[in-house]
Amino acid sequence: xxxxxxxxxxxxxxxxxxxxxxxxxxxxxxxxxxxxxxxxxxxxxxxxxxxxxxxxxxxxxxxxxxxxxxxxxxxxxxxxxxxxxxxxxxxxxxxxxxxxxxxxxxxxxxxxxxxxxxxxxxxxxxxxxxxxxxxxxxxxxxxxxxxxxxxxxxxxxxxxxxxxxxxxxxxxxxxxxxxxxxxxxxxxxxxxxxxxxxxxxxxxxxxxxxxxxxxxxxxxxxxxxxxxxxxxxxxxxxxxxxxxxxxxxxxxxxxxxxxxxxxxxxxxx
Length: 269
Known about the structure:
About 35% of the residues lie in helices and about 20% in strands. By secondary structure, the protein is α/β, with parallel strands linked by helices.
């Protein structure tokens, strides 16, 4: 499956577009990451793809597994603030609402909902009857992500899905999101690049009213190490990589990846 933008212009007013003539391709298989500084248009792009904002010009096009092109596809969006998604009295009601509205039998919806909550790290025996607004920040985020993906739409949009989670929670969440991306198109806006770069397929960097597309994490890392003003990788990583910027592939910006690199390559640093 493939999702593309065709000469897309986005913004809140035709008089002052945020970005013009975007021609981007998002593929199934791994996570598509959108990164960049605050205020550079990441969420605006996500809202436009989701249909909450109309394109100022241009088109959005989805090509399914049968190579059939369409202007419309089943899409879900998990907002940056999960509280915006909740409107029912329990986690169980939140997770089954979309299923029953879509025609799933109530008992079947409960079975699916319990399995899906568990997949996102919420034990249904504990959380099923809890009020969503009484959950912790991380639990709210997990519930919002579960509720927005339970129907398994073809296109899944996630805005800062790892915010408020500790390191182990981020790792677990990244694995779940990566599993979803195996069979559908997943686009993630994030400031938590280090937690997701190893499971990404393409990276889209916003800034200066444009988007630069990188077909793989390696090309992104090579670019921003040469031009650090484009994206602030961790300083410790920048300092270490000065010793092996000519090496390929570069290690990912995580401690485990760098340690593994040194164990294998043993460069003279």
